[in-house]
């Protein structure tokens, strides 16, 4: 599948890549060679072979994409993980640090890359969920839940996953995962309306320091990507003591 790059992201020097995870058995063996020992052990713990193959392909492709951007071999990539599991490069290099995030649903994987700014991405197959209303009531904010309940029945699945992917991309960008209270920010969700962060804590989404885009990486799928705005990144760098500023910051 060719890369899918939304225009607004392209203009902001973001890089979005989409892959199908269905690979031939002989390709799986070759891709597995790129993984670390820890990743191979994790792959072996999957009960279903389909899940194991998907994990191997997704991680191997990530290493290939990182290696291409860094000019190194895929197997030399070293990853580390934040407190809540967000992956990052373990070895720091001169220049703006390469940030990335990955998500996959069924056989579609999406990868997001950015230089020097945090980024988060999520993808889901749009489908009918029998308890979607209960999930929305529990995990969406009050504003989001009200917007969801005004949708026509035919728009409910896409509206639900618009909201879910946008919220997931945001909490992945900030690095908190599901530890971040989901009612502390609002996103748009109605099909046909622009993807926007409406509120973060007491701030308007236009001034929250994060940018949101949504796109369809394949028929029947919806994805969202959230990036740290240039202004937020610049303000963060400005308040750091000079000797404490990472070499990767511009």
Would you mind describing this structure in some detail?
- With 250 residues, the chain is an alpha+beta fold.
- The chain has two domains: 7-118, 4'-phosphopantetheinyl transferase domain (Ribosomal Protein L22, Chain A), CATH 3.90.470.20; 122-232, 4'-phosphopantetheinyl transferase domain (Ribosomal Protein L22, Chain A, Alpha-Beta Complex), CATH 3.90.470.
- It has eight helices and eleven strands.
- The protein has helices at residues 7-11, 25-32, 37-44, 49-70, 132-139, 142-149, 156-173, 230-239, and strands spanning 15-20, 79-81, 87-89, 98-105, 108-115, 119-125, 185-187, 197-200, 203-204, 210-215, 221-228.
- A three-stranded antiparallel beta sheet has the order 1-5-4, covered by helices on one side.
- β2 (79-81) and β3 form a beta hairpin.
- α3 packs antiparallel against α4.
- The longest helix has 22 residues, at 49-70.
- It is globular.
Rg, Cα atoms, Å: 19 Å
The CATH class of the largest domain = Alpha Beta
Question: What is the overall pLDDT average?
Answer: 84
Shape annotation: globular
- Looking at this structure, what is the CATH superfamily of the largest domain? 4'-phosphopantetheinyl transferase domain
Low-confidence sequence ranges: 1-11, 232-250
- Share of helix, binned: 25-40%
Tally of structural domains: 2
User: What string gives the helices and strands in order?
Assistant: HEHHHEEEEEHHHEEEEEH
SS element count, helices: 8
State the secondary-structure class.
alpha+beta
Q: Which fold name corresponds to the CATH topology of the largest domain?
A: Ribosomal Protein L22, Chain A
Tell me the β content. 15-25%
Q: What topology, given as strand order, has the largest sheet?
A: 1-5-4
Distance between the termini: 34 Å
What is the architecture of the largest domain at the second tier of CATH? Alpha-Beta Complex
**How many beta strands in the DSSP annotation?**
11
